[in-house]
């Protein structure tokens, strides 16, 4: 399904988004609660991915709205310079990607990304990292003096957590894979 490739995370476009874009009102709301000790949140932000390939370095970015309730999630992506809107949904059993090119399904978010782009990424770990928690099988975790998670490793993925002032939740994740993939995710919680 190569036709989906340019739209997953609105990536594989050369360069990164340089202009600000207003997010639409179609935020995928799953829970009214913005944050608690479980995996329930509604956030917005920007995600950027870069990778080294045989054709050189490729990079791109997208704005997102993300609603999460335990393992279920809804993500709406808005791509660079009108590339199109993409929706990713996971109901706990089936992951679905929909955009103006069609629909793609897989049994897990990781399988969906692999099918759409050929990439692998720790998508199931992101909800834990977004709320500043370790994911299952994380190792070498470090905390700051306030007890907030600042580094963690999961298999070949290493994540660094950045915080604004005394916030208990991270405002930015920088995730690296040993093979050169890099994901940078800014996180904005509603007031």
Automatic annotation (TrEMBL):
Pfam families: LolB
Location of this chain's protein in the cell: Cell outer membrane
An individual GO BP term: protein transport
CDD domains assigned to the protein according to its UniProt record, in alphabetical order: LolB
Membrane topology qualifier: Lipid-anchor
Signal sequence region: 1-19
GO cellular component, as recorded: cell outer membrane
Keywords, in A-Z order: Cell outer membrane, Chaperone, Lipoprotein, Membrane, Palmitate, Protein transport, Signal, Transport
Subunit (UniProt): Monomer.
Family: Belongs to the LolB family.
Protein name, as recorded: Outer-membrane lipoprotein LolB
Lineage: Bacteria, Pseudomonadati, Pseudomonadota, Gammaproteobacteria, Moraxellales
